[in-house]
Amino acid sequence: LKMSWVWFYLPLHLLMAVCLCHSIRAPTTSSQQSFKSDLFNFYHSLILADGKETTIHLLKDIPKRYYFVLEEGRAPAPFTVTVTPCDVPIEWSILVHKASASFLGKAARGDHDTQEVSKSQKTPSMVSTIFNYKGNSVETYVGMSSYSALYMLQFLSTERDTHITVYLTTDTTSGHLYPELPVDPRIDVIGIGHTTVTLAWKHSPSVLQHRENIQYCLLVNEKHNYKSLCAAETAIRSSGMKLPPMLALSLSPYLLEPQQVMILSNSELSLINKASSGEVRQICMGTKNTYTVPSLSPSTQYYFDVFVVNLLTNASAAYTGAFARTLEEPEPKMTELKDGKVIQVVLDGKKQKFYSLQYQARHKRIQFTFQSCRGQVRVHITKNSKTVASENISGLRYFSLKGKLLDTYLVQLRSTEQSNSSVKVQVSSHFHKPLFPLLPESLKIKSFSKLRTCNSVTIAWLGTQEESKYCVYKKRIEEDQAWMELQSTDRCTGPESRRKSEKVLCKYFYDINLQRAVTTETIKGLDAGTPYLFDVYLIGPSGIPVRYHSKVVKTRKKC
């Protein structure tokens, strides 16, 4: 049994015309008409190459047909057809048209005559479907034929445009294009941690026979399992991630060293050792059949697919995918808050983790005070596991809450920025002894452009109805330092952190009428054309300072 490749050199319409002359008599019944229709389908097919993987593009709802021919031989021999869907499920089938071997051979050579054609019409031909499949799994059909036959493969996608790969071979003695899978192709999850999952799988027979040409690759993602490396690549492309042609996912075994991780971002492909959560990762580990996946997110479900890849042909076979959920992150250490005591917390902006504080009420009414020292902070407060307050703060913020004795309050703090943040926290049941001074409506410092001179600047700020102490400080800076100075300001530090040379003055003031609770100050002795950073500190009865928002003002260059 062998392939009649001489047919490649015949015009396709001539080949089909010979088949029709040989097989079709006058259609006298509906079955004969159906048979003629089947042969018409063969006419609109393409020749499928033997021993080569063919990529076929399918348009939605438009069937595509390919054919191949088997001639009669001395002994039956097998042939195989493997179809790999690269995206959505498809429908495919194999149809066979049985015919005389002598006629097919003569038709191929073109030496038949009218009498033989007439004689062949007496030999009935049959077209039958020998295989049908619908789905998105890799499927292989193994056939055996001892008679001459014309085979047609028909493919159809009903969901959307897609592509598939098809591999036909009549030579089953010279090895396999696709690596072999073990009898049990499952992936075993043998260990689960908070950020790791350990996997194991049985060796492919191909690895044991051709170790230098075979490699295992693992695909990790948070969506679903993939039934082929082709399907995984298609999904990554359709999500908007771009793969350079020479760095396609299916070629990656050539590129990766053991233990390296391939990160697919929105616009580029790079090899690094650690991936951010939510991205697709591919790890190729040579011929090792165990692997611990690192750097996963806690309490997250991941899907794992192992592919055994032939480095010579770039063909692959997929193990049965597995999935696992990482363990929940351990509860963070709880810090107990004590009544009236102030603590300062530094929050890691990169890890974006919550810092937890707990307080058990000894009075029905309590007050939480938060002073954001640097950056913006997310505050979430629960009472007996029910949320009572949740918001972002920058500056000073009070939360007055009412409950019962021994109510348990949980405070969770998190930086809202990528950089570190810090915040001061106090809880108190003594409302008559406030920790922070009474604050004005705004903590902004205003400067007057018309009152600016070459050696002086006039600034103003709001006060309150409570007599308090206000201290003014100045700092000479470079023009390109202004933004950095404002960003790095720690609003929780007081005048004690400043140099004595930076102090301008301290004064007391208040006004019962809030409309008139405004004070101004003219700072003299400055250099011309020079920027200065000005700060005002409000210090209340408790001695805890509150810093106004820093202000940068530049003196005039010419007067």
TrEMBL record:
One of its GO terms (molecular function) is heparin binding. Residues 1-21 form the signal peptide. Keywords: Glycoprotein, Neurogenesis, Repeat, Secreted, Signal. GO terms for biological process: nervous system development. InterPro entries: FN3_dom (IPR003961), FN3_sf (IPR036116), Ig-like_fold (IPR013783), NDNF (IPR019326), NDNF_C (IPR045805), NDNF_Fn(III)_1 (IPR055271), NDNF_N (IPR056225). The keyword Chaperone does not apply. The keyword tRNA-binding does not apply. Pfam families: NDNF, NDNF_C, NDNF_N. One of its GO terms (cellular component) is extracellular region. SUPFAM superfamilies: Fibronectin type III. PANTHER family: NEURON-DERIVED NEUROTROPHIC FACTOR (PTHR14619), PROTEIN NDNF (PTHR14619:SF9). Secretory protein that plays a role in various cellular processes. Acts as a chemorepellent acting on gonadotropin-releasing hormone (GnRH) expressing neurons regulating their migration to the hypothalamus. Also promotes neuron migration, growth and survival as well as neurite outgrowth and is involved in the development of the olfactory system. May also act through the regulation of growth factors activity and downstream signaling. Also regulates extracellular matrix assembly and cell adhesiveness. This is Protein NDNF. It comes from Struthio camelus australis. The lineage of its organism: Eukaryota, Metazoa, Chordata, Craniata, Vertebrata.
